[in-house]
Amino acid sequence: MSDCRKAVARYEDTMLSSLIARGILQYPPGVGTLLMQKLETAYRVPRAVWHKILAAPDRYFHVPASDAERNRRRMELEQRFAERIAALVGDPADAERNA
Q: What was the pLDDT predicted at 3?
């Protein structure tokens, strides 16, 4: 797979399939289900969408003001989506370097 940001999750997760329908996520070319018994696959954020979000994150998300608030929010999201997302691949910190 390329250096795009990716998530591995259940193949028919309704939240992720609705994001695919809107063009916010894609199935990487040639990627089917990775683990047929678990029905998981990879989803990726297209580069154009990723760059748009990075250019104006506060337009799309609440951007925490402090490191403590960012860490608290990250932990909250990890707990909320732990059952739905098996893995995240790609480091937002290197997005400009790898784009």
A: 59
